Amino acid sequence: MSAESKPTVLIVGAGLGGLMLGALLEKADIPYTIFERTTVVKPLGSAMVVGPTLLPLFEQLGIYDELLSLGKHLTHTFGYKQNLEPMKPLDIRAMEEFTGYQQWAIPRPKLYEIVRRLVPDQRIQFGCRVLNITENDEKVTVHLSTNQSYEGDIIVGADGAYSAVRQRMYELLKAKGELPKADHEDLPFSCTCLVGQTKVLDPDKFPIVNFPECHFTTVHGQDKPFTWHVFNTAQGTLCWMAVRHLGRKNTKAAMEQRFRDSNNAEWGDHPAQAMCEETRDFPINIGGGKTATMGDVYDLTPKEYISKVMLEDKVFKTWHHRRYVLLGDACHKLNPFGGHGAVTAMHDALALANLLYAMPTRTTEDITKVFEEYHKERYPNVMEAYDNSIMLSKMFNTGILSTILLSLVSHIPLWVFRLTLSKSVRFRPQCGFLKIIGQKGTAAAELSPSQHKARVAFEERQKAYARAAVSI
Predict the structure, then answer these.
(1) What is the mean pLDDT of residues 185-202?
(2) Residues 385-427: pLDDT tens digits?
(3) What is the C-alpha to C-alpha distance for residues 430 and 350, in angstroms, rounded to an integer?
(4) Is the residue at 371 inside a domain?
């Protein structure tokens, strides 16, 4: 790809997916700018588990060792009944055997900081809300709330579940009668959730924070429509989540209308505080034979870092149109119980970066071909992650179905469980234009088409550079 044929990429959204795309384009020397509507990204959220499906890429990017230094090794997950009677732990160490990589729990803000440092400051424009997007046959232009406009060849919507880029793209498709009916529908959700992370805790009062490995615990409400989760971090804090299972699907628009009609409000600081009060007495095991309540954890969490969120789940069918393309929550919002939301967003970014690197020209025809290949590769993987997250959400729910699923998992034959774990980590993609990390573990990784395509392009360019050097 010559300098003249490299596309200029406009990325809307500086979440993990948008940042990862930027970091990879930086390595590929493809010009890009990231636009983020907030002026500063607050360290909200709980924690996520990073394992074999992402760590080879992190190793390529040179951030593997830092992640391990900030993470907590996860080998088991622990379940409790509402009275804190323990359930059979799940041992997931077979993943290490299969892949050569461990599972690490890391606070989401810490992971964000690691990825953020891969993107130069001058590449991100903060405090820029997208007002409009216009397009002609050759270029796409984003118009911002700062009265600035930026022109590029491609616009990427990495701006979350209620994406402005998706909205604009879908308006164009609706006007032509080309938007599938399913994509007209609102994002559904069946859970609301409180998330947060405490300040550094005293290990004498909370022995769990001194455990050498991550103690990921889930308490299943038996007479309450809740599950609640806590896990210790390498920073001496507890990450936590309290989930209310609503029992039926809702949408943001329907819920907001219902609360407007009742002169109430569902979202904001006061409802978060109300949910804290509602769940204060929920018990948790904090190690060393000690117990505490979620209220104890809330009181040790900075109030500005407690958030109430909806746990939507939907995979949109339409991911691209002309020079528009979506990634992450903008095209697939996964229930977080599977732990795949941020992972799939970064996998999207990787596939897109590989394909853009291998793209021969920046014509509309070649851009469309790249987007079609991107959707063809990513959609089946995302649907598999979506189905897994739905199944896990049912297991973490309350009621008879949850009881049956938990019983099945507790009694599953070891060979079946190992087969399931092996299948879950077979997809360990890498960046085709960076140094490939060799095979680790006993199970070979599945080679993605985008990685293969980028690798072929990289090797052809290396040969061309060598021939040019000889001729000189």
Answers:
(1) 90
(2) 888 877 766 666 666 656 665 666 666 787 787 888 888 889 9
(3) 8
(4) yes
Is the four-CA dihedral 347, 424, 232, 210 of positive or negative sign? Answer: negative
Percent of the chain with pLDDT over 70: 88
Q: Is 308 within the bounds of a domain?
A: no
CATH number (domain holding residue 121): 3.50.50.60
CB 319 within 8 A of CB 298: no
| Verdict on whether the full-model pTM lies above 0.85 | yes
Give the separation between CA 428 and CA 266, rounded to whole angstroms. Answer: 39
The Cα–Cα gap between 48 and 345 comes to 13
pLDDT band at 125 (very low <50, low <70, confident <90, very high): very high
- C-alpha separations of 424 from 17, 270, 388, 395, 421 in Å: 21, 40, 10, 17, 5
CB 25 within 8 A of CB 152: no
Q: What residues contact residue 84 under an 8 Å CB cut-off, 6+ apart?
A: 219, 283, 284, 285, 291
Q: Is the pLDDT of residue 27 over 90?
A: yes
Kindly state whether residue 353 falls inside one of the protein's structural domains.
yes
Please check whether residue 48 lies inside any domain of the structure: no
Domain count, the chain: 1
Instruction: Compute the distance between CA of residue 300 and CA of residue 303 in angstroms, rounded to an integer.
Output: 9
Contact between 251 and 305 (Cβ < 8 Å): no
Question: What are 390's two structure tokens?
Answer: 């739905």
Q: What is the DSSP letter of 92?
A: -
Beta strands 103-107 and 47-50, pairing class: antiparallel
With contact defined as beta carbons under 8 Å apart, do 448 and 41 qualify?
A: no
Residue 157 domain boundaries: 3-42+109-185+315-463
